[in-house]
Request: fold
Amino acid sequence: MDLAAIRAFIAQEFPQTNLVIEAVGEQTCRVRQPIDTSHLRPGGTVSGPTQMFVADVAIYIAILHKLGPVALAVTTQLSINFLNKPAAHTDLVGECKLLKLGKRLVVGEVYIYSAGSSEPVAHAVGTYSIPPEAVQ
Reply:
């Protein structure tokens, strides 16, 4: 799927999200999550669940780019290391790279940044299961 097709697919299947898909490449993608007060936790930082969402969706977007519209691909594992405090009221940017693209499992990693910063705020690794009917 190209960038326009992925954006249309996500808008149709996940209308509740305001995540922005900025770019897709060969087993990579870049996404941006606009941050508002609903994403903050006490202490003036972006919540862990918001950061995990960015990681999870980034891997899914990279899979869509590579395999096409696999609506029923599911996360089977996601781990995250919180490295630095994200800036409050600053978008999160996730940069994903697929590490392994197997017949049934896909593994990807995501570095998450506060927009404008070169230091990652988190690093995540996740695995997706691809439904048998999607495997070509």
Summary: The first helix runs from residue 3 to 13.
